[in-house]
Amino acid sequence: MGSNVYQTLKMIDPLRDDLMVIVMAHTEVASFNGVDKTVFGVPGGKLVSDVVKPVGMFSVCLETTVDKSGEDVNYMFMTQSNTVNMAKSPDGMFDGAKIPNDMKAVLEAIDKYENG
Q: The pTM is what?
């Protein structure tokens, strides 16, 4: 199973440069030295998380969060790690550590960052 996940993710590398590929996955909570952190949740379990390390295969990894304030609910993407999540992106790619959950805006920000 772990090999299948790895091979599937590696199939992205040789695709055309003009394609943007979005990989979506669930997260799981795992405990590391008594601290709960989110991790990439994919089939294959421990082999995938310990050996394949899918997050390391991407330069951008966004994690969803829901911000609630009274009756207001905002669906957001975290763009940077807060020590307990797995979000990451190059500095300056996005306007902040949290951005609206808008995939079109995400793709536009990545394109602007990479292609000017």
A: 0.80
